[in-house]
Amino acid sequence: MTLQELYVEIGGDYDEVRGRLPSDKFIQKFVLKFLDDKSYELLLSSLENGDGEEAFRAAHTIKGMCQNLGFTTLMESSSELTEALRGGAPTPQAGPLCERVKADYERTAGAIRRFQEGLPT
Amino acid sequence: MASSKRQKILIVDDSEMNRSILVDMLEGEYDTMEAEDGLQAIGILQNHSTEISLVLLDIVMPKMDGFGVLEIMQRRHWIETVPVVMISAENRSSRIDQAYELGITDFISRPFDAQIVHRRVKNTLLLYAKQNDLEALVAEQIYEKQQNSALMVDILSHIVEFRNGESGMHVLHVRTLTELLLRSLVEKTDQYHLSKEDIAAISMASSLHDIGKISIDEKILNKPGKLTQEEFVIMKTHSAIGAQMLESLNVYHGEKIVKMAYEICRWHHERWDGRGYLDGLKGDEIPIGAQTVALADVYDALTSKRVYKPAYTHEKAVEMIVNGECGAFNPLLLSCLQDISENIAEEMAPKQYVGPRHAELSDLLQDFSQHKELSASNRTLQLLEHERMKYSFFAAMSKEIQFEYTKAPSMATFNSWGAKWLGVEEIVMDPFHNETLMALLDEQDWQTIFEMLDATTPDKPNAVYECRLLHKGKRRWFRIVMQTVWEGEEPAYMTGTIGKAVDIHDMRTNLESLERMASYDGLTDLLNLTSARKQIEARMKAHPDNNYALAFFDLDHFKNANNTYGHAFGNQVLAHVADLLRQNVRDADIAARVGGDEFIIFLEYHQELEAVIRRIYRSISGGDFQGFTVSLSMGVATTETVDPIFTDLLKAADQALYAVKQSGRGRFQFFDPSLRSLKPAGGSYADQSISPIESQDDEKPQG
């Protein structure tokens, strides 16, 4: 899988990212790093524990990373979730939005993992 | 930029990935440091503020967000020297406005664009670069204070003098002499077409002749002694730099005075024969203003004392100039100098400079010097940094806890030794809700400290308190010295507290053990009579209406124990009795050894005193100690029948004891006022009650 194909699969905007960040190598490095970030786990656990503020920050961080990496689909859903969580008091939409973020995240992370497996070692 | 050292950028973002992206983007040109939340950022700024050239700051972060960081940076004036570029996915304009109000220089929104990040960082750094800063400040100051040329001149020339460490009179002298020379010149010739306004403008502009010196290293500028070749080359650049500064003053472009000043700055070191600098101009190629100022400058330099030469007299100076010892000058000007020679001495005599603008000027200068400190003086910051290092070193050696508390934001800062010792962070936000910190002192101690601080005033801001601090589960005595910090006038308001805590535990415990040694009986470890009396009196004074009882007892036939088994055994008996006594009185009761085999017990009671006394009596009396039968005779007096005065109680108890002795020992008895008459005239212990008494069995009636 090429980097471009990966972006198509996860609903990202490769051309936009390529215009902003210095090189494919640069982009690839941080795309792979996305898997290491713990914000997603933090989002889920803090929602479970009812810690609204922590959940907001986690969603906000995911949104920021997706913006930087041009992961448009996950960026949109995490952005909406961020707004639903803002102020630490989740709105009723937070539940369904979180389900969307989960689906988008799993799709994105899954694709990156497959991309990673396909890389020459 | 002058410095070839790489500039350091602090990246503050809670997302590791975002920090990495920025580090990757910037590390080619800059050094980077990272902080993962606002609190860390503040910690780094606190310790590295002179090293950090720029902060890239995220908004949404745990512990302290970007706005919190900005607020603290503003309060501590860091923002004036360390620019902040905010980076965030936030795009609501109210938040952005808020950030600008808090002093950020620029805003980068996500997603990051490598080029934009680069350019913003570079622009911001340029903006804050020293040279630009200084020029911008000069222009801004002048603009702010409106276009008052005269004021501008004064400001600029005084800035130079501030830095030169000159007497402050040089500029004034040059100005006066320039004016005198020019007036004399127009009487001789009209070839220079000088109007009155021209003369005024040149004289005023003359004050600016050395402003270029602002950019000369102070070490060269104030060097005591002759300059080396290289130093002189650097020194000579002040002419060009001064001219350039005036050229870049957009505000005043086109004004006559600025044109004159430009000429004077650039050419006041030229000489008539073309052998001066900067451009080697000759004769009247040199504008007349510059010629005149050059002459005045030389004259004042000759007649002033310098580190490397004494002050020459007026006559000597004129002679040297006319003889060409200081380079060639326009012959016309030289004859003017000689013509006005007499006036000069008079005009230049020291006088108080009291211009109408004096007060305004000093305000301005103060403003300016403050700005100058902020922008220009990295050296000052480094010196401060050095002092701070020195201080924290000594503080570590002396085991001091140093702290600072600011009310807004509510924040406590500790020196690193102190923080480590106490087991707290060096920076604690909202300290009074921090459990670790609050647990360091007893609640009562905190309360007292707050009350003491509340009672301070700007005139008396100090407070000292001794209490125990928690350290690794144990409490140690510390002396805390505090000073409240005030701002503003009438009314001043308290903005925080600084202070230190010094370990006095060893000193204090030594003192306590001395005190203890003085208060306790060495053999039995019970209180001695003196300290028991103190405590008893304090107790009765605090609650005079309560019921108290004093029991006074001795051991029956103690002398036999001593005689039969020796004094060492007698001491063992006494220690044994003391142990029993300790075990059987309540914590609140006071038990003491009066001396010899005599003891007292003081207790407070509410009812049923007799039962209590009986219990104590029985727990001690009647047992056997290594063959010696312990038996007590005890007299008890209470405040129900005796005034609550220690000596009276003791006397009464002693009388009751006497009665017991008389009636066969081995029991206790309450004082009966009617028995008073039975008391013998002398020989009672109570009469000598305050000093410990040796065993006096012999003197007692053997009943």
Q: Explain this structure to me?
A:
The complex is a heterodimer of chains A (about 120) and B (about 700). Chain A has helices spanning about 5-10, 15-20, 25-35, 40-50, 50-70, 70-85, 95-115. Chain A is mainly α and about 120 residues long. In chain A, about 75% of the residues lie in helices and about 0% in strands. The relative contact order of chain A is 0.17. In chain A, helix 4 (about 40-50) runs antiparallel to helix 5, helix 5 runs antiparallel to helix 6 (about 70-85) and helix 6 (about 70-85) packs antiparallel against helix 7 (about 95-115). The mean pLDDT of chain A is about 90. Chain B folds into four domains: about 10-130, Rossmann fold (3-Layer(aba) Sandwich), CATH 3.40.50.2300; about 135-370, Hypothetical protein af1432 (Orthogonal Bundle), CATH 1.10.3210.10; about 400-510, Beta-Lactamase; about 520-700, 2-Layer Sandwich (Alpha-Beta Plaits), CATH 3.30.70.270. In chain B, about 50% of the residues lie in helices and about 15% in strands. In chain B, helix 1 (about 15-25) links the parallel strand 1 and strand 2 (about 30-35). The radius of gyration of chain B is 44 Å and the shape is elongated. The N and C termini of chain B lie far apart (about 105 Å). Chains A and B meet through helix 2, helix 3 and helix 5 of A and helix 1 of B.
List low-pLDDT spans of chain A.
none
Radius of gyration of chain A: 15 Å
Principal-axis shape of chain A equals elongated
- One letter per element, helices H and strands E, the order of chain A comes to HHHHHHH
Largest interface between protein chains, with number of residues from each side: A-B, 25 and 20 residues
Structural class of chain B: alpha/beta
Tell me, what is the CATH class of the largest domain in chain B?
Answer: Mainly Alpha
Structural class call of chain A reads mainly alpha
Oligomeric category: heterodimer
How many domains make up the coordinates of chain A?
Answer: 1
**Into how many domains do the coordinates of chain B divide?**
4
Helix count, DSSP H or I runs of 4 or more residues of chain B: 27
> How would you characterize the largest beta sheet of chain A?
none
Largest sheet: spatial strand order of chain B: 8-7-6-11-10-9
**From the coordinates shown, what is the CATH architecture of the largest domain in chain B?**
Orthogonal Bundle
